[in-house]
Amino acid sequence: MLKTLRIESVRGRLTLYYLSVLAAAPIIVGVLIYVLLARALYVRVDANLQAGVRIAMTSLSNDLAEGQDYEDAARSTAAEQSLSEQMLAIYVRDGPLLAESGKDGDLEVVLPPPDMVPDGEELLQTALETDGDDRHRLAFRSVSIPPSEYIVVMGADLEPIDEELDFLRGILGYMVPIALCIAGVGGWFLARESLSPVVSMADRA
Question: 88 with 52: CB under 8 angstroms?
Fold first, then answer.
């Protein structure tokens, strides 16, 4: 009787050990997949925004070179971007909004202080809509094209990405209990097989 109790105790500990090992592997893999995918998606958004800012800078420069004044050049550049899925807003560096296109009505763009907006690279920030529902990624860049100085803002709605990641989290949420059940069965089986020689020796004793 005592031998049987000891064997069952060892089997229980082995089952828990195998359960933890077998369950940890798919959970860790799932978390890594989620983190890497989220990072890749957000990095792609930032890269697209930075590319969009540079396109807007080129358009502004070309329009000014063609003889348009700084306001007309801003409006022309915004009109050229109107078919894009990205938002574009062009401000005088220390002044008002000159032109915009593709802006969500619930998004309020708050310009950072001019000295915080770099001249040679983009300042990237995440902003919430006024109703606190969706997020937007914004890229700010100070652009100096004599005789004018602008702040160019390019934005992208993060709702599609957030929805994709939310869907993935739901899938992973279903996978965890399934993985635990499979790991429990597998752990019990492995513990049983590991102790089978010991059980045979105990039965012969």
Answer: yes
CB half-sphere exposure, 82, CA atoms < 13 A: 9
Residue 2 in this model has a pLDDT that exceeds 60: no
**174-196: per-residue pLDDT in tens?**
777 776 666 666 655 555 555 45
- Contacts of residue 124, defined as CB under 8 A and 6 or more positions apart, other chains included, come to 46, 49, 137, 138, 139, 140
Q: What is the reported pLDDT for 14?
A: 59
Phi, psi for residue 78 in degrees, rounded to 5: -65, -40
**Token pair of 35, please?**
């983190």
Spatial distance between the Cα atoms of 139 and 86, rounded to a whole number of angstroms? 11
What CA–CA distance (Å, rounded) separates 87 from 103? 5
Q: What is the pLDDT of residue 138?
A: 93
B/e letters for 88-105, b = 16+ CB within 10 Å, e = fewer, are bbbbeeeeeebbbbbbee
Question: Beta-strand (E) ranges in the chain?
Answer: 87-92, 97-101, 123-128, 135-145, 148-157
Instruction: Tell me which DSSP letter residue 85 carries.
Output: S
Q: Report the 3 state secondary structure along 148-170.
A: EEEEEEEEEECHHHHHHHHHHHH
